[in-house]
């Protein structure tokens, strides 16, 4: 064969390889994602360049990726029909750190180490070609660029400071175009060389790469074959003169053979035109992707254009997960981020989607993020901030859609499962108060068993009513029986019953709805606009001494004892100070400090 030339790696490359092997040892499987994404990039590049240089496609082969696992020898080969590399490109791309991905990996890795970061995070990086050495102790890259007549072979070994390049001369190994990687797996990693294992990894990481991915798989079919008769019996039959009449014996056997099997869907559902995707398709995708077995309550498929471009499908599940409180658990893996259809991560903590909306599930695919996007990048990226904003807006549109559906039960179901999340949103997300508030639901003094919206409350307001009244209590029943209600009931004013412990804090965060303030009817300064100062004065004179007497006996237990116009049939009531906690809050605080 042709003589091979030996090259030294650029110093940074050796360092990078050490780092990758040392930091990703527990996450080795990412190598396949990286190599498939390179193959997909190479196909993308060819597709792009061939638009202006159709000559590049003179070797008419399909655009695809093929993976062959040889478990007996512990070898994986991965072949693409992409742009390939010339000799010079091999040196530039696989001997030095390209400007792309890998250099940033180094920086981010350093940053994360400096910040005492966890190693797990590194699994999310696009660590690139050298991740092949996570599982292989020898890697061969045989590649043919359509720009060159020759095919070259790059060969490198784990823990080496140099690699070799030679021309491919073995006619059996020539390929028309593209790149064939051969990984000679390390002894402990030979388990990766199983078609089923490969298929599983592809389904997890690269299911939606837009080029077909095939694996070489063993298949079988059954057929009936004729079997020779037992010679002794045949002889006997002959003697009996039965040969002609007797039917031949058959048996069923399984024929084994090997063939390429397509293992990905080349057109991810989110890239399709929403008009051409059925509800069943969306539901199926949801169940498959998020391991759910019930259909979602709603879905929303959209593309955003302009400043930042991405596609997404969001879902509202039918039920909240039981058994664990996912408001508190931020790691719900609810959003799967793809960059150019390559799965990047589903391990976020509020970067892409606020925590209080973590019940919403979905996929997001962006062309504007780098493949090696890290948590640091996510936190700092302007692109991500814009994406987050749009995703949140779309999520609220979707929820609003449920609330406006003809089927009132749908929203009741939603509220029962996820109402708490929205209430948390009132506290955590000031910016979206306008979107959250119309979705809230409460019992009220006039709604009987039904929950009402703030819009329904406002519609039902008296012409001269300025505020939205509420009372916090531990149940609808105790709210109904509170003496504070008396005067409002007399005036036919509706009062919201805040019976969930979080309700009161949420309402206090909202402060107002449609320019109407929320007013706690148990507070001292409640003004119903019906003051009669003359009568108040008379009353004060008449009962002033009684008040003093009561105050003297109660001492420090109350701040003051006053004449009030707030009651109509009860003789007295305990109220909270204007700046104090409401009775309900006090109960909450007490419960928490225990
Ligand atoms: P990145 O993909 O971020 O550029 P990698 O380390 O994964 O970094 O790859 C380095 C470079 O090697 C790529 O940019 C590309 O030029 C080249 N390369 C890797 N794999 C292939 C391939 N299958 N076909 C053509 N070029 C490739
Ligand atoms: Mg890459």
TrEMBL record:
Region span, Disordered: 225-246
Keywords: ATP-binding, Chaperone, Nucleotide-binding
Top-level taxon: Eukaryota
Compositional bias ranges of the Basic and acidic residues kind: 232-243
Family per similarity comment: Belongs to the heat shock protein 90 family.
Protein name: Histidine kinase/HSP90-like ATPase domain-containing protein
Organism, scientific name: Stylosanthes scabra
Coverage span on the entire protein: 82 to 675 of 790
């Amino acid at each position: 064969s042709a003589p091979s030339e030996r090259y030294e790696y650029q110093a940074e490359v050796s360092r990078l390889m050490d780092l990758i092997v040392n930091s990703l040892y527990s996450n080795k499987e990412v190598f396949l994602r990286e190599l498939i994404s390179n193959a997909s990039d190479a196909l993308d590049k060819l597709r792009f360049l061939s638009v202006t240089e159709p000559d590049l496609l003179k070797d008419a082969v399909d655009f695809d990726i093929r993976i062959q696992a040889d478990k007996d020898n512990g070898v994986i080969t991965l072949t693409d029909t992409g742009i390939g590399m010339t000799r010079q490109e091999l040196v530039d791309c696989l001997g030095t750190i390209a400007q792309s991905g890998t250099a940033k990996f180094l920086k981010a890795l350093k940053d994360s180490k400096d910040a005492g970061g966890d190693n797990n995070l590194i699994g999310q990086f696009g660590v690139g070609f050298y991740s092949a050495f996570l599982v292989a102790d020898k890697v061969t890259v045989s590649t043919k660029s359509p720009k060159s007549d020759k095919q070259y072979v790059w060969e490198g070994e784990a823990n080496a400071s140099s690699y070799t390049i030679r021309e491919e001369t073995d006619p059996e190994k020539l390929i028309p175009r593209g790149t064939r990687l051969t990984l000679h797996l390390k002894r402990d990693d030979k388990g990766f060389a199983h078609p089923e294992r490969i298929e599983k990894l592809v389904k997890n990481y690269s299911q939606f790469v837009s080029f077909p991915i095939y694996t070489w798989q063993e298949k079988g079919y059954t057929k009936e074959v004729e079997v020779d008769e037992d010679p002794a019996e045949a002889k006997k039959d002959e003697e009996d003169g039965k040969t002609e009449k007797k039917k031949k014996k058959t048996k069923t056997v399984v024929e084994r053979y090997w063939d390429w099997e397509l293992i990905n869907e080349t057109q991810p559902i989110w890239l399709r035109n929403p008009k051409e995707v059925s509800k069943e398709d969306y539901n199926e995708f949801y169940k498959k992707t998020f391991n759910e077995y019930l259909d979602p309550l709603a879905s929303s498929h959209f593309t955003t254009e302009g400043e930042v471009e991405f596609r997404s499908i969001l879902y509202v599940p039918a039920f909240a997960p039981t058994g664990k409180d996912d408001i508190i658990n931020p790691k719900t893996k609810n959003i799967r981020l793809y960059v150019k259809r390559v799965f990047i991560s589903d391990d976020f903590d509020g970067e892409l989607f606020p925590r209080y909306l973590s019940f919403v599930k979905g996929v997001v695919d962006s062309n504007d993020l780098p493949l090696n996007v890290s948590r640091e990048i996510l936190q700092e990226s302007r692109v991500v901030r814009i994406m987050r904003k749009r995703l949140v807006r779309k999520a609220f549109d979707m929820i609003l859609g449920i609330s406006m559906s003809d089927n009132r039960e749908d929203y009741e179901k939603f509220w029962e499962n996820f109402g708490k999340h929205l209430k948390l949103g009132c506290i955590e997300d000031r910016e979206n108060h306008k979107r959250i508030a119309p979705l809230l639901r409460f019992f009220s003094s006039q709604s009987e068993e039904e929950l009402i919206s703030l819009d329904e409350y406002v519609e039902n307001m008296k012409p001269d009513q300025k505020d939205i009244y509420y009372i916090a209590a531990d149940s609808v029943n105790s709210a109904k029986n509170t003496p504070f209600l008396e005067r409002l009931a007399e005036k036919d004013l509706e009062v919201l019953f805040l019976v969930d412990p979080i309700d009161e804090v949420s309402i206090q965060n909202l402060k107002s709805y449609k320019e109407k303030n929320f007013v706690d009817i148990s507070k001292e300064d409640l003004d119903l606009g019906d003051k009669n100062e003359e009568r108040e004065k008379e009353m004060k004179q008449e009962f002033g001494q009684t008040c003093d007497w009561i105050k003297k006996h109660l001492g420090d237990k109350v701040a003051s004892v006053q004449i009030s116009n707030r009651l109509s049939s009860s003789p007295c009531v305990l109220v909270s100070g204007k700046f104090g906690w409401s009775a309900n809050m006090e109960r909450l605080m007490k419960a928490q400090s225990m």
